[in-house]
Amino acid sequence: MTCEPVASLILEGDNLETNQFPEETAIIDLNLKVYDETLKGQIFVTDRPAGLADVVPVARSLSDEIARRTIEYANRTGRNIPCEKGCAACCRYLVPVSAPEVFRIWDEIQAIKPEEQRDVLSAFVNAAQRILDAGRPPTPQGRVASGEKPQDATDTINRWYAGIDVDCPFLKHEACTIYPLRPIACREHMVSSSVEHCLPANSDQAKPIEPPFSIVEALGRLAGEAEDLSLESVMLPFAPSWRQINHERARRKWPAPALFECFIATVHDLSARHRLAA
């Protein structure tokens, strides 16, 4: 079950009273370059144990702000982004979720009404079975070793997944049923082409807009550093079963300030790397 948030993100310019937080609350500064602007804010973190799932609400808020600035930047440079609530054109593509997101999604599923929970879990089972029935996907490692770029290999996997034509478990009547809680990969996915070009049959004509850096990657790196594991991600339809297998990991706790400091340090590092590569 979900509980009171461990941390809150307050961006520069937000009209919120910071004295609402206890005196022992840790404050972590945020200072990121997003295109031609600086994103500043603070994360107020309660001094109590926290799990990886507790980082996700702040990660979602940060991702939303980056997406908002990405849209503004695209508009200033003459590009229109049609992506908005109500569009389901990309809801049959592969959605990678990090371990923290898997744990959070499971907690949120457990918090809904039992009858709705049964429907959601049934949709996950059906989607996962469709993927398993499709057989093994192309092997990226072999293709990269033969000279193909990593992004090309990722595109190959994405095209394979799109060919399965499996609905997102959270898609109902061509609408996202958890839009405010949707995965961060969905928040980061944007195109400047028409909606029709997002459909699997026309996907080669889509013009994706890459975010300045990926919060999905930041969450994955956070989990890897906290647990001393390799970077990993899970296909969304397999999230509940993966969570059940890794239930002990979901229960692990760290001091909340240290966990959020690690997350923000990772975000700053990814931002710096992007600026150097640009």
Please give a structural write-up.
The protein is an alpha+beta fold and 278 residues long. The protein has one domain. The chain contains 10 helices and 9 strands. The chain has helices spanning 56-76, 99-110, 114-133, 140-145, 150-164, 184-188, 215-227, 239-245, 247-250, 256-277, and strands at 7-11, 26-34, 37-45, 49-50, 96-97, 171-172, 175-176, 234-235, 254-255. A 3-stranded antiparallel beta sheet has the order 1-3-2, with helices on one face. It has a two-stranded antiparallel ribbon with strand order 4-9. It has a two-stranded antiparallel ribbon with strand order 5-8. A hairpin with a 2-residue loop joins strand 6 (171-172) and strand 7. Helix 7 crosses helix 10. The longest helix has 22 residues, at 256-277. The model is unreliable at 142-150 (pLDDT under 50).
Give the rounded overall mean pLDDT.
Answer: 88
Order of helices and strands: EEEEHEHHHHEEHHEHHEH
The end-to-end distance, rounded to whole angstroms, is 42 Å
How helix-rich are the residues, as a percent range?
40-55%
Taking the sheet with the most strands, its summary is: 3 strands, antiparallel
Shape: globular
How many strand units? 9
Task: Determine Rg (CA atoms, Å).
Answer: 19 Å
Low-confidence stretches: 142-150
Strand order of the largest sheet: 1-3-2
Tally of separate domains: 1
Structural class: alpha+beta
Task: Count helical runs.
Answer: 10
Strand content: 5-15%
